[in-house]
């Protein structure tokens, strides 16, 4: 890649953000609120990425999951609430009485109540011999959560922030440091012996991390397993896409801008090799946009090419935003530690409202055999958001959104007719499996949309349509997960390829951290920590 000519115009923007996913939008809106001149470039027509919504025939469908954390009112882990409030926005939300209901092998059915003691009592009734271990394990998760909730969650790459937050909450900081290298499986086995209960803990992790407990960091589990009871699961009225729309409104009200149908093809650098400075971006149209700082909300696979690619089937190295000659060596090490998770086969169904029985929960997870947990199309996730917000569907209808992990390798190389046939057959098979909890589903469908890994790759711009990185080997908790700085001056990453990983609240954390780190670099941060 050639350096930008010396005659290029001076930077127009303080920060350019590539991609309008939730991590990118939190970064952009936070920086705009600090006074930075911010431009977001989004390749698609709407914001939000996998946290967006789309409309068809009177239905509002969520692109991804609708089990949303981060909308509580107290503490510091309610990051979506705080991100919106910081730019003068808020979402009306609808509380869900349960996180989800599990339908697991051997007739193990468990609903996770919003009330913590009720959930522990429900699980203890199924495993009375593990009563002490159940309480000890989930109470340990609360210890982690209280450490997180005691401090404003900003950039761990900023020594000034770390000093201030340690002064404010020294015990919480020390407690958090203790849990950083720990995975859930180690903690679970310390308290629990029953193999079936340990498999349930695996599924508790898999439902949001797509990893078993041995590979899931304890920091993430502490957040999820406790916040579902502390702040609770709260659905944004109007659909998940409202979160992104509100963040865009907040960004624009603070002087920032967003451009749609603006596909970035490369990051521009001044200088050569790993000492180069990012100075802007180039669009597919050939237009070049200059900036003092550049943020990639793409996955790290889509951001960096490496000298030896092992994912060329899913994404040619030439399509990366940063070519191999500029890519830091740390990115190659990261790829040896992490691999892309599968994508999903997704069903967006409009069904007769009479199909859904009274008292049915909004979110469900199904697995017919424990051995299939990590298999292609093994676990099934189900969401019925119209049980919380009926306005998402026409009168007399419900939405049933179901998705199951599916890898791109099963969809590659298919011609149009073979692809259409597989899409039809796999969707029909998934619907038949869903009949186990929704008898009569097949005959109740009035609208049907099917998405595949190829759909996710096309519309979300993610390599292989991946949900995000998962460990390629057993790693010490979150310690190997990179932060926002990339090793290249002026270039940052944000989103699920950064600490602390996947999920809307997690990428919002990443956005807060990225904006804080850039704010420190540009001299924009206030002296005091947030209240």
Low-confidence stretches: 1-8, 309-315
Question: What is the count of helical runs?
Answer: 16
Query: Roughly what percent helix?
Result: 25-40%
Strand content: 15-25%
Per DSSP E runs of 2 or more residues, the count of β-strands stands at 20
Distance between the termini: 45 Å
Query: Class by helix and strand content?
Result: alpha/beta
CA radius of gyration is 22 Å
- Average of the residue pLDDT scores: 92
Q: What is the overall silhouette?
A: globular
Largest sheet: 7 strands, mixed
Name its key features:
531 residues; alpha/beta; seven-stranded mixed sheet; 16 helices; globular; disordered N terminus
Provide an overview of this structure:
The structure is a single chain. With about 525 residues, the protein is of the alpha/beta class. It contains 16 helices and 20 strands. The protein has helices at about 20-35, 80-85, 115-125, 130-150, 160-170, 170-180, 185-190, 195-210, 220-230, 240-255, 300-305, 330-335, 415-435, 440-445, 455-460, 505-520; strands at about 15-20, 40, 55, 60, 95, 100-105, 110-115, 235, 255-260, 265-270, 275-285, 290-295, 340, 345-350, 365, 380-385, 395-405, 445-450, 470, 490-495. The strands form five sheets. Strands 1, 2, 9, 10, 11, 12 and 20 form a seven-stranded mixed beta sheet that branches. A seven-stranded mixed beta sheet has the order 7-6-15-16-17-14-18. Strands 3-4 form a two-stranded antiparallel ribbon. Strand 11 (about 275-285) and strand 12 (about 290-295) form a beta hairpin. Helix 4 (about 130-150) packs across helix 9 (about 220-230). The longest helix is centred in the N-terminal third of the chain and has 19 residues, at about 130-150. The two termini are about 45 Å apart. Residues about 1-10 and about 310-315 have low confidence and may be disordered.
């Amino acid at each position: 890649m050639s350096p930008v000519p010396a005659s290029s115009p001076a930077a127009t923007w303080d920060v350019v953000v590539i991609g309008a996913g939730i991590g990118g939008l939190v970064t952009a809106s936070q920086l705009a609120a600090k006074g930075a001149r911010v431009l977001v470039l989004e390749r698609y027509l709407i914001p939000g990425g996998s946290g967006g919504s789309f409309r068809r025939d009177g239905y509002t469908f969520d692109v991804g999951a609708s089990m949303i954390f981060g909308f509580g009112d107290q503490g510091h882990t309610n990051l979506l609430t705080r991100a919106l409030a910081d730019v003068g926005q808020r979402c009306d939300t609808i509380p869900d009485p349960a996180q989800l209901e599990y339908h697991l092998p051997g007739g193990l059915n468990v609903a996770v109540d919003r009330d913590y003691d009720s959930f522990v009592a429900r699980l203890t009734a199924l495993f009375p011999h593990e009563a002490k271990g159940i309480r000890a394990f989930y109470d340990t998760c609360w210890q982690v959560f209280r450490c997180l909730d005691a401090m404003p969650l900003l950039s761990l790459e900023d020594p000034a922030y770390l000093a201030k937050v340690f002064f404010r909450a020294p015990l919480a900081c020390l407690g958090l440091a203790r849990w950083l290298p720990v995975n859930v499986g180690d903690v679970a086995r310390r308290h629990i012996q029953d193999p079936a209960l340990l498999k349930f803990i695996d599924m508790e992790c898999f439902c949001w991390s797509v990893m078993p407990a041995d590979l899931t960091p304890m920091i993430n589990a502490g957040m999820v397993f406790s916040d579902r009871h502390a702040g609770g699961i709260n659905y944004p009225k109007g659909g998940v896409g409202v979160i992104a729309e509100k963040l865009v409104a907040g960004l624009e009200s603070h002087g920032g801008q967003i451009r749609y149908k603006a596909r970035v093809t490369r990051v521009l650098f001044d200088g050569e090799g790993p000492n180069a400075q990012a100075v802007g971006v180039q669009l597919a149209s050939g237009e070049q946009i200059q900036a003092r700082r550049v943020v990639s909300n793409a996955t790290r696979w889509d951001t960096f090419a490496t000298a030896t690619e092992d994912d060329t089937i899913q994404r040619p190295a030439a399509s990366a935003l940063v070519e191999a000659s500029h890519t830091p060596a740390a990115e190659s090490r990261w790829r040896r530690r992490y691999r892309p998770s599968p994508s999903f086969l997704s069903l967006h169904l409009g069904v007769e409202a009479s199909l859904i029985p009274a008292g049915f929960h909004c979110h469900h997870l199904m697995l017919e055999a424990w051995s299939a947990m990590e298999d292609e199309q093994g676990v099934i996730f189900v969401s019925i958001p119209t049980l919380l917000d009926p306005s998402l569907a026409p009168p007399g209808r419900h939405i049933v959104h179901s998705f199951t992990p599916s890898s791109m390798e099963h969809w590659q190389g298919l011609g149009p007719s073979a692809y259409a046939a597989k899409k039809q057959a796999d969707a029909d098979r998934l619907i038949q499996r869903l009949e186990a909890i929704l008898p009569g589903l097949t005959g109740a469908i009035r609208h049907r949309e099917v998405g595949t890994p190829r759909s996710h790759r096309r519309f979300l711009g993610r390599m292989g349509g991946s949900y995000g990185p998962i460990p390629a080997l057993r790693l010490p908790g979150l310690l190997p997960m990179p932060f926002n700085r990339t090793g290249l001056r002026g270039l940052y990453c944000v989103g699920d390829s950064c600490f602390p990983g996947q999920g809307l609240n997690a990428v919002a954390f990443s956005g807060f951290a990225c904006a804080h780190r850039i704010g420190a670099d540009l001299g924009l941060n206030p002296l005091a920590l947030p209240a």
